[in-house]
Amino acid sequence: MKKIILAAVLFLATSATIQAQLLKLGVKAGVNFASQPGDATLNGVAFDKDGITSYHVGVVAEVKLLEKFAIQPELLYSTQGATYKFADAQEDFKNELAYLSIPVMAKIYMTKSLSLEVGPQASFLLSQKNDVNIEDANTFDFALNAGLGLKITESIFVQGRYSLGLTDVSPNADIRNSVVQLSAGFMF
Length: 188
Fold this sequence. Notes:
This protein has one helix at residues 2-22; strands spanning 23-35, 41-42, 45-66, 69-86, 92-109, 114-130, 140-151, 156-165, 178-187. The protein is mainly beta.
């Protein structure tokens, strides 16, 4: 009987250790360098655009499938947008869009600590702050992401990523989100 109990305890301990190595949860935050490239007219009015600096924050999971391959789903609050300079206006107008973003990244480990990350991202508009009456933004944004990740320790990591929007930000303008993200995070 003691051998059966000891075997069961060893089995449970081994299973917990294996699962801990396969799934890691964490948090991340960082800076966004966002812009909205595309057509430089809105309802026939010409304007120039500049990028904005904003932020992102959220939770991350890493599911290790092979020794050099993992899937990393994330749930992020991310702000993006641009500053508009209309030709006949005295001021600049900032349009900031807040999204709930869900990237799902495939991570290919090139070394034990350096990974190449690529994958799709679905984003849902939570709010829009703007200083000018710009047409309402679309509530869904789809993007493709690519970047690099670096594990500084087993728990601390940094990432750099480019997100290329594939859907228009507004139904009345040919403008898409474009974001460079720099992140730091902690895995538990």
